[in-house]
Amino acid sequence: MLATPKEPETEPRTHILGYACEWVSGNSDEDDVIDDILSNGFEENYTWDGNCEQLSSDFLRLATSLGITTSQHRWKGRNFVVGDMSDMRTISMDPVGSEYPQRVYEFEYHQWSEVASLQIDPTTASTKSGNWGDYEDYFFSHYERITSSGPYIWDVNMGC
After folding, report:
1. Which of 84, 63, 50 is nearest to 16 (CA)?
2. Rounded to two decimals, what is the model's pTM?
3. How many CB atoms sit inside 10 A of residue 7's CB?
4. 83: number of CA atoms within 13 Å, CB side?
5. Domain total for the chain?
6. Residue numbers of the domain that contains 121
7. What is the pLDDT of residues 15-72, one digit of tens each?
8. Could you tell me which of 37, 53, 78, 142 has the fewest CB atoms within 10 Å of its CB?
């Protein structure tokens, strides 16, 4: 462990800590630990299955069990009011697990984690530096803007 576990895992569950310690064995650097959780844990043992909330929550628990301070971020479309966003279109992404191919997806909701100034996306088992807004602008290429009548319009993400 790198430090005393933080919330929500102040008393780490042994099965979570067991997985995390197995996947990061031999590392003493926080960045290496994060990389090993993603590559040994998520790429090998998880399937996206449309549930980024579960993946992000599991990542948070694994990291905090090892004493790494982690937070979560989420994007959700607004209400269905003219002018609001309803969905976001991703860049071409390769979700964890073999069931879903690399391609562009449309999300109504997306959740990922942050460690220091790294954005950690367990959905794709990837890491990107910068703040959460930078990551949101990177990951989503277009958003759907509600118009007065269908079909809705896909606009290029301009740092929304």
Report:
1. 63
2. 0.82
3. 9
4. 0
5. 1
6. 14-156
7. 888 888 889 988 888 999 999 999 999 998 999 998 999 999 999 989 988 889 899 9
8. 78
Residue with tokens 């976001």: 88
**Which tokens hold the place of 104?**
């562009």
Are 30 and 68 in contact by the 8 Å Cβ rule? The answer is yes
Task: Examine residue 1 and state whether it is found in any structural domain, yes or no.
Answer: no
28 closest CA partner among 56, 2, 55: 2
Residue 37 lies in a domain: yes
Report the distance separating Cα 97 and Cα 124, nearest Å. Answer: 9
Q: Which helix (H) or strand (E) holds 71?
A: strand 71-76
Helix H, strand E, coil C: the string for 15-52 is: HHHHHHHHHHCCCCCHHHHHHHHHHHHHHHHCCCCCCH
Which pLDDT does position 160 carry in this prediction?
41
Query: Is 2 inside a domain boundary?
Result: no
